[in-house]
Amino acid sequence: MAEDAADGRGRTDNVKEFIAAVSEYYDENPDTTLAEYLEEVALLTDVDGYENDPERITLMTLHAAKGLEFPHVFIVGMEEGLLPHRSSIDAGAASADTAIEEERRLAYVGITRAKKSLAFSYTLRRKRYGEVVACEPSRFLNELPADDLQWEGKGGNIDPEQKQERGAAHVAHLRNLLG
Hints:
Layout: H1 2-28, H2 34-45, E1 70-75, H3 86-90, H4 93-111, E2 114-120, E3 125-128, E4 131-134, H5 139-142, H6 160-178
Parallel strand pairs: 1-2
Antiparallel strand pairs: 3-4
């Protein structure tokens, strides 16, 4: 019963997210139809025709990244409730262990796509269904070897000059990547 309730909540949340996305799209494109929206979303998420072009940035799901490699990988949303997903966390005890293990493997897929650099991001607060909610970093980040991680904005303050230099270096690097 608890699994059915959690599954039902997850499906309800998915419908709410879909409605919010359609509403936002319609606000920006008032003359569009639902069919046009769905066609555009399908095109945006379809990586079947992926071509490895170093002059382009490619956005895709972790599932779609299987078997591919990229020089630089950014995994965004490394938060509890996103990765692992809320439905995996809310599943019954035995089911949750299996679901979270599957999500861990999915995170591993993303991590192993990077050839040169890998960056994770998470937020402390996120707007969900029009309400600001607190977020916490994904448990998977704590499972990575601490010696291999460089944390930005966590533990100790960086002096403003060093922060400025680091920011300028990141921007220069991105400009170089983007041509």
